[in-house]
Amino acid sequence: MKRIFFIIIALIIIKFLNAQTQLNTSDGTPIYYNQSAIITSLPKQKTPPVGSVYFNDQWKNATMLLNDSTKLTKIKVKYNMLTKKFEIKQQNDPNIYTIYFSRVKKVIFKDNNNNITMINSLPYIIEYPDLIQGYDFLIVHTKGKITLLEGIKLDKLYANYNTALDVGSTSDKYVKKTAFFIEKQNKLYQFYPTKSYVLKFTKDKKDLIKKFVKQHKLSYRKINDITQIFNYYNSLTDEKN
Question: What average pLDDT does this structure show over 23-27?
Fold first, then answer.
């Protein structure tokens, strides 16, 4: 008899606890939680994505070389990294034309007094798919015995807003991710802007490189400075840029 009594009491307690584990939000939507975490079936609330999908948000003067050797000059260009299309304006033409990135071999952007050269990454993707995948074009910082390349790709961070806790983002967000690569002796390597990596790829001229960096007060972490270092290294190797 006592055993039956305790079983009944236990069932009442379990029912009571279960009733306590259901909460409601202000709109009456139920939320369930266990001892260690809150579990909710509420959907993420989304608003339009934020962030730019363009490599360059502003139109830039450029020269474009296509795979069939066609050369487009005196044009203005923007690159949409989401659609993987170049948007092109021509002189005295109000229309905007598009061309898929796979048809473009090289683009040279005119940026003030500097030229930014971008090459199609497809030849590298074929040989180094795990390393280059996602980077449509590579910016050429140096060319010679050491070629320093920069890849920029578009990534998407998905909304993670939780209405129950009122935390997180309500919008997907487009962000740009950057990676650097070294091409040396016909091989491609991942590169990180650090002293150890710079000296690793210039070890045959290590003492001269250290002296050059000290003399010109350069940083091993800034890409503009690293570009100067590698240009100097290339000049020591008597290879033409």
Answer: 40
